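Quick one, probably user error.
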């Protein structure tokens, strides 16, 4: 039987499931990082919530570790990459606390709009100050939802019942899905310029940290209010403090902070803020669901059975014919996503050539993994990728054809927005190549930082792009050009030394004869 280390409060019902299965459950709360490293040494499973940091060092200190179970949603406190590298499965409980978090958000919005904590403190302090606490009705006001995922969607439902008008910023949600929720998708700038209340429901990632920056806060509708029950640091706290102090922002309600507890935050001293100590998931119902779900998932992992909420399952199941195509498929998904700038409205995946006769299901999952990896930085796996597609309303169709155009095998991704195709080449036939972009045949290995430029076929276009990159200090490491096609356009695909700044893209896009210039990234290619 296994040894299970539990380092945070987990519902008794969950612990009971593991104990009655015969496992040794060791509950050690409040461990320092050093104590955790010592305690995890002989553990087969580690169960945590959001406070325990499961770093590479912790994983490396646990040679017997099979599974890390996160009783909740956010995985930003787990080094999933290090776990995967060591063959440790990571599981979470993605549905367990979403209702509690959405209800807490509504509580924060109402408390902020009606000054409830301030009024309570005033009354219990002996005052009866009715005129001091004039509030704002939610009815008819615009709610801007940043991140229209599981919790964002539940908040949308609830806010609709209050008669609020809904707008959202989420490039990974289709217009169609948003429309069905009664939400209009807008850009972040439009959202903050229009909304009366903004509520954040994003994962913590490189892209989302500091997303509500000083620059964004400079463009807000005067009197706007901000609510964050997602992750601390997504709103720049210093800049928010300044915006509230100078009256641009009317107030904020926060459940999460850049540092928890937020001892030195200047926000603590402002009168028009509502703050709670990361209570979004703190209900009996959510804790029971999270505890039971994580216990069930951990037990399945220990029994070596299929684990529905695993986030880092590997592709060892693929056949030898299909396996070499997995990195290409993921790269194509990423390429397509960055070309579209988010999620396509629908997607057809076509396998051409000998590949069409193979079991291509893992390739489709790899493509989805690539599509959802762009911008999300959330663990996307072969297991959760289809659920992500269904949740976000992305309809995926598969097609196959024994005849491949121009190559022996070809994988083509077609959406109303763009077409991208790829194959394997090189001496061993294992090197991924992007070979089709929109109607252009071209050939270049996928890379982390690329530039795709479609232009009218006229002299000087290559020079124009080269100069713009050179002036920005970027060097071109490889380049391919596809000549003019029927519509008179040509295409350049370049690999560049570093990510291309928006200002450079803007300058290229604005030049005469350019149809589009897009920074595309295929992630790390093995
Ligand atoms: P989710 O993955 O279902 O939804 C996140 C949404 O954000 C997705 O639709 C995604 O497309 C969107 N998104 C990702 N990157 C984006 C970007 N750069 N710009 C715009 N949109 C982007 O997640 P969820 O289950 O709704 O959880 C949302 C957050 O709430 C997470 O951070 C989670 O950890 C947190 N959470 C907090 C509590 C709490 O106690 N306060 C409880 C539960 C969850
Ligand atoms: C989560 O991501 O699930 C929340 O932060 C809640 C928690 O872990 O307590």
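Nope, works fine. Designed sequence:
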């Amino acid at each position: 039987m296994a040894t299970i280390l539990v380092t945070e409060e987990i519902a008794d019902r969950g612990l009971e499931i593991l104990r009655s299965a015969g496992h040794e459950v060791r509950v050690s709360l409040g461990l320092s990082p050093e104590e955790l490293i010592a305690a995890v040494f002989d553990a087969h499973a580690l169960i945590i919530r959001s406070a325990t940091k499961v770093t590479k060092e912790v994983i490396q200190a646990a040679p017997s570790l099979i599974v890390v179970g996160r009783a909740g949603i956010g995985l930003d406190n787990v080094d999933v990459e290090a776990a995967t590298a060591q063959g440790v499965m990571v599981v979470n409980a993605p549905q367990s606390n979403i209702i509690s978090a959405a209800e807490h958000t509504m509580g924060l919005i109402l408390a902020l709009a009606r000054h409830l904590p301030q009024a309570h403190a005033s009354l219990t302090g002996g005052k009866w100050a009715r005129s001091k606490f004039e509030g704002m009705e939610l009815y008819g006001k615009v709610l801007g939802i940043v991140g229209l995922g599981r919790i964002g969607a539940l908040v949308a439902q609830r806010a609709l019942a209050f008669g609020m008008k809904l707008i959202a910023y989420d490039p990974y949600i289709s217009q169609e899905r948003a429309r069905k929720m009664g939400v209009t998708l807008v850009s972040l700038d439009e959202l903050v310029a229009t909304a009366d209340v903004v509520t954040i429901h994003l994962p913590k990632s490189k892209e989302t940290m500091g997303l509500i920056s000083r620059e964004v806060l400079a463009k807000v509708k005067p009197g706007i209010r901000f609510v964050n029950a997602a992750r601390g640091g997504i709103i720049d706290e210093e800049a928010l403090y300044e915006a509230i102090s100078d009256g641009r922002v009317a107030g904020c309600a926060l459940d999460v902070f850049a540092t928890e507890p937020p001892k030195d935050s200047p926000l603590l001293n402002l009168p028009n803020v509502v703050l709670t100590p990361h209570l979004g998931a703190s209900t009996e119902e959510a804790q029971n669901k999270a505890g039971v779900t994580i216990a069930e998932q951990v037990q399945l992992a220990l029994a070596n059975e299929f684990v529905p909420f695993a986030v880092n399952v590997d592709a060892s199941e693929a056949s030898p014919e299909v396996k070499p195509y997995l990195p290409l498929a993921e790269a194509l998904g990423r390429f397509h996503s960055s070309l579209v700038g988010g999620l396509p409205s629908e997607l057809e995946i076509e396998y051409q050539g000998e590949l069409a006769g193979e079991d291509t299901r893992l390739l489709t999952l790899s493509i989805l993994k690539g599509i959802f990896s762009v911008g999300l930085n959330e663990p996307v796996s072969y297991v959760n990728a289809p659920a992500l597609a269904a949740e976000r309303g992305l309809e995926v169709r598969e097609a196959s054809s024994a005849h491949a155009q121009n190559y022996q095998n070809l994988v083509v991704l077609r959406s109303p927005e763009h077409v991208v195709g790829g194959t394997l080449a090189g001496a061993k036939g294992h090197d991924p190549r992007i070979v089709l972009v929109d109607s252009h045949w071209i050939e270049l290995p996928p890379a982390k930082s690329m530039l795709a430029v479609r232009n009218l076929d006229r002299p000087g276009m290559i020079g124009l792009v080269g100069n713009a990159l050179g002036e920005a200090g970027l060097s071109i490491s490889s380049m391919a050009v596809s000549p003019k096609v029927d519509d008179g356009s040509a295409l350049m695909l370049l690999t560049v030394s570093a990510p291309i700044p928006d200002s450079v893209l803007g300058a290229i896009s604005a030049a005469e004869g350019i149809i589009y210039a897009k920074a595309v990234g295929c992630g790390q290619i093995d």
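The chain has a mean pLDDT of 92.
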